């Protein structure tokens, strides 16, 4: 289970190394463009970057779209990919810089962010605690819980968020008594200014790929909107990189009231803009701009992680044409929004569209088949003993 890795991080102007140094200063596009950040921003390599861009010729033919592309962030890491790995590079960098012995984060039982945190904490030799609350049953929930266990995360199931918030300080106090440091607390989804830097870097990565001719300049980027870290980073990054892209950010749960989502996204964008301006002389203004981003809230379905036939149909269409799998909670709903927009607005078919795949769809059966679900805390057992939802995506 132990994986040898090569990492580097920047702290206090000194380059520190764990295992074998494999990166040099300026290895990220963000650091190349803004060398002022070197020595000021902690970062550890976790992702295999740049992630590929795939032209969806088969799906595009079905839809009548000539320039339809997919950014494959499902391939950010061979152990466990998805968009959260980009955020964790900076969050774990800060945790290592601060000398923390462990990290903790929140999420629902099947959280992809929590699973990515568990896998990469193990990779870096850090303890991991996951504070979890219930959600509807999905295939990826079963997968992720077994991966959490395999990679040594301490799983804390709570009945609701109120119980979780009451118990977190107690668990942290016990951890500090045992390990000598507090837990480095990562908010749900990793949506902080530091985490969102991962997607500022992703925008500069995209610019490099456009400059190399891998794809034309996208007119529109479709991306999932939940905790806001991914979308906020792209909003700031695209402006800073001079990418004139319209961002369609797709809300994935009706519990996310539209006004609240707008406030959360605009607040994080503005905080990120101010943070970068404080470190970079003459940093261009990248404040929230409602002309740059549209929040789409018509495809949430009936609840978080609740599957439906329309989203399942979108997922099956991508898989049958391009052999790419999505989940029904996040990326599948974003794809459904894209397909509906194309049907309702035929003029979009003449645009260059980039769908940002945020889901880790890797093959993990060699691990999960070895884990008996009864080894997990009892609160999770019912998710393995009851049928899945009728329109579950099967990943």
Structural description of this entry:
This protein has 395 residues and is an alpha/beta fold. The chain has a single domain, classed as Rossmann fold (3-Layer(aba) Sandwich), CATH 3.40.50. Helices cover 40% and strands 16% of the residues. The protein has helices at 29-33, 57-63, 84-97, 112-124, 139-150, 161-179, 193-211, 229-240, 258-279, 309-322, 331-344, 365-368, 382-385; strands spanning 6-11, 14-19, 53-55, 68-72, 102-108, 127-133, 154-157, 183-186, 220-225, 246-251, 293-296, 353-357. The chain has a 6-stranded mixed sheet, sandwiched between helices. It has a 4-stranded parallel sheet with strand order 7-6-5-8, with helices on both faces. Strand 10 (246-251), helix 9 and strand 11 form a beta-alpha-beta unit. The longest helix is centred in the C-terminal third of the chain and has 22 residues, at 258-279.
